[in-house]
């Protein structure tokens, strides 16, 4: 069949049906023209047969009238004989003209013309003998002549040729009818086959369309489910962030109240003691009190710096991402006792990108401290192509990464942080095989760098 795509079947089938209709019309037209032509030829055959019979009748009438004239001498018979001879000549001229278009029949016409002319000449000669008073010779001439037999033989030959032509035309007509019938039946069969195939293809196309619509509906349902799931995740994450923000505020308030407040309260008590002591106290006691107040103020400054560092690391602002991560890893190792190895290369990130990278490493180290029970941790920062790649790996107990629940706000938070910067996050972990967290962030393009103004 056709080597085409399924979507091209219907136009081709419609084209084939159109061609089938045109072919049927052509077959009918050819059959009509052939039937018309054969009918005209059969009409010619009938006309020739009619002319030959009329010619034979005229020759016979001329001979009979001539014989009666010779016997009775009645001029009326002579007039009838001459009229019959005139009619015979007219029929002979018609046949001669008709057969001029058929060179293969010229011999028959020539023989017929010669026989008729011989017969008419004999009758004319018999009339001349009668006019000369030789009636007996004229009767003997007419009675013993065989030209009439020659005329009938020539006419029979012409009739036989025309009858043979009529049989040939009949055979041709029968053959044409058989071919036409076969062609029409064949085209009808092919058309029915094409219509059946078109019906099957239409049914298959309807089934494919229904299946396609069902698949589209399933995709829409999956997409809506995914949207609902992401919306629920974002809602949970938002709630978690709000809760974390409130917890952070509570922690900061508690540190301010418990640590900074107690230090400032102690310093106020020492200052009140100095103010109320006046000059009655020993200089040594006053100096000791002032030294204690100084220590309290140093402790207050240290608490303030620690709180500020927790909120926004100063090393990230003043030194860059790599030194800030180095300090973070060192503090983590000192606090948890876990061995930390670093491989940090300078990378060019936007300000928000640096904060995102720092928070991802910070959250990863927090998860290691809380859940991993690891002995060694490695932190790397490299530039690969147009991406900054951050990898945090530990040798802890690991977990099944495929079963991470939607409420795992730490990992979800890191993922959304990375996506918000146009990057991505991948977590690889197996129970007993440790965990590897890889984040990729786009590097800052040269066009995005703000040029510094030299003073």
Q: What do you see in this structure?
A:
By secondary structure, the protein is of the alpha+beta class. The chain has 2 domains: 6-205; 319-448, Heat Shock Protein 90. It contains 10 helices and 5 strands; from the N terminus they run ααααααααβαββαββ. It has helices at residues 9-72, 75-99, 106-131, 135-144, 147-277, 283-311, 314-318, 321-336, 351-372, 409-420, and strands at residues 339-344, 376-384, 387-394, 424-429, 435-442. It has a 5-stranded mixed β-sheet, covered by helices on one side. The longest helix is centred in the middle third of the chain and has 131 residues, at 147-277.
Question: Any descriptors?
Answer:
5-stranded mixed beta sheet, disordered N terminus, 5 strands, 2 domains, 10 helices, disordered C terminus, Heat Shock Protein 90, 455 residues, alpha+beta
Tally of domains: 2
Strand content: 5-15%
Rough shape? rod-shaped
Strand order, largest beta sheet: 1-2-3-5-4
Radius of gyration: 63 Å
Biggest β-sheet strands, sense, barrel? 5 strands, mixed
Question: Percentage of helical residues?
Answer: over 70%
Number of strand segments: 5
Order of helices and strands: HHHHHHHHEHEEHEE
Structural class: alpha+beta
What oligomeric state do these chains adopt?
single chain
- Individual helix count: 10
């Amino acid at each position: 069949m056709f080597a085409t795509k399924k979507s091209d079947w219907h136009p081709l089938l419609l084209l084939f049906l159109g061609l089938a209709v045109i072919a049927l019309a052509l077959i009918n037209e050819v059959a009509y023209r052939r039937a018309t032509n054969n009918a005209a030829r059969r009409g010619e055959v009938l006309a020739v047969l009619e002319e030959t019979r009329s010619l034979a009748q005229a020759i016979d009438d001329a001979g009979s009238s001539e014989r009666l004239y010779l016997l009775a001498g009645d001029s009326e018979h002579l007039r009838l004989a001459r009229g019959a001879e005139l009619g015979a000549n007219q029929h002979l001229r018609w046949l001669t003209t008709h057969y001029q278009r058929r060179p293969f029949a010229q011999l028959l016409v020539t023989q017929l013309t010669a026989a008729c002319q011989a017969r008419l000449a004999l009758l004319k000669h018999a009339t001349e003998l009668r006019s000369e008073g030789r009636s007996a010779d004229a009767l003997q001439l007419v009675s013993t002549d065989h030209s009439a037999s020659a005329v009938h033989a020539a006419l029979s030959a012409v009739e036989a040729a025309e009858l043979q032509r009529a049989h040939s035309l009949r055979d041709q007509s029968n053959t044409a009818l058989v071919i036409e019938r076969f062609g029409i039946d064949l085209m009808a069969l092919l058309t029915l086959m094409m219509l059946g195939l078109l019906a099957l293809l239409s049914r298959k196309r309807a089934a494919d369309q229904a299946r396609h619509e069902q698949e589209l509906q399933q995709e829409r349902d999956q997409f809506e489910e995914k949207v609902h799931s992401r919306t629920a995740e974002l809602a949970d994450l938002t709630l978690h962030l709000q809760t974390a923000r409130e917890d952070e505020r509570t922690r900061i308030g508690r540190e301010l109240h418990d640590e900074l407040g107690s230090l400032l309260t102690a310093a106020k008590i020492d200052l009140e003691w100095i103010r109320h002591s006046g000059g009655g106290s020993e200089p040594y006691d006053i100096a000791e009190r002032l030294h204690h107040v100084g220590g309290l103020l140093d402790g207050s400054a240290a608490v303030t710096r620690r709180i500020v560092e927790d909120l926004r690391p100063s090393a990230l602002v003043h030194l860059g991402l790599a030194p800030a991560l180095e300090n973070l890893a060192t503090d983590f190792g000192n606090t948890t006792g876990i061995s930390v190895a670093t491989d940090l290369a300078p990378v060019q990130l936007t300000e928000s990108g640096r904060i995102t990278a720092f928070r991802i490493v910070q959250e990863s180290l927090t998860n290691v401290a809380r859940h991993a029970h690891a002995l060694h941790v490695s932190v790397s920062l490299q530039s690969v192509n147009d991406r900054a790649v951050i990898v945090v790996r530990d040798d802890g107990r690991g977990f099944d990464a495929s079963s991470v629940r939607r409420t795992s706000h730490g990992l979800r938070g890191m993922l959304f942080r990375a996506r918000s910067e146009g990057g991505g996050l991948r977590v690889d972990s197996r129970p007993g095989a440790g965990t590897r967290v890889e984040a990729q962030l786009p590097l800052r393009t040269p066009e995005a760098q703000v040029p510094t103004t030299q003073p």
